[in-house]
Amino acid sequence: MNKTTIVSVISRKLAPFVLLFGFYLVSYGHLTPGGGFQGGVIIASGLVLIMLGQDADRVDQVVHVRLFGLAEAASLLTFLAVGVAGMFAGGAFLRVLFRVGTEGRIRDALFVFGLNLVIGLKVGAGMTVICYRLFEERPDPEAW
Q1: Which of 38, 50, 100, 123 has a C-alpha 20 to 30 A away from that of 21?
Q2: Of 96, 99, 101, residue with least CA distance to 114
Q3: Are 44 and 87 in contact (CB under 8 A)?
């Protein structure tokens, strides 16, 4: 498929900033509004921007989409394991399991930070796989 030079150049220049902002949202979601879901969607949109500028097959050569599927499954299993472990510890789903410091603030912030990382990975990987499959299945406009 033939991409225009403008779309290719702009996507290559803009995508690193979009990805950086997504990682920022995932990392600071426990302190500011935002978090894993919003950061994961922005990370996926940065990868989709790269797919728009390049062919989806070329993106698959650099970063295998199969790895994104495995990352999504692993992050879901991690989230569920942490949640069920809280239940087995005698509390509710996603109960904080470890203690750091004398106050609960540090403990809760670290717990939410870890959950933001897992959710960001899950959402980012899932959205990237969905969009890749959509790009892979699109018809060739020159064939119309």
Answers
A1: 100
A2: 96
A3: no
- Dihedral angle of Cα 133, 129, 15, 2, to the nearest 10 degrees: -20
* pLDDT for position 30: 72
110: pLDDT confidence band, cut at 50, 70 and 90? confident
| Of the candidates 57, 63, 52, 44, the residue with the CA atom closest to the CA atom of residue 125 | 44
The continuous run of DSSP H or E covering 17 comes out as: helix 5-27
Enter the tokens of residue 56: 């989806």
Is the model's pTM score more than 0.85? no
pLDDT, position 109: 74
H or E stretch at 73 = helix 65-88
Rounded to whole angstroms, the maximal C-alpha distance in the chain is 67
Tokens representing 99 are 């203690």
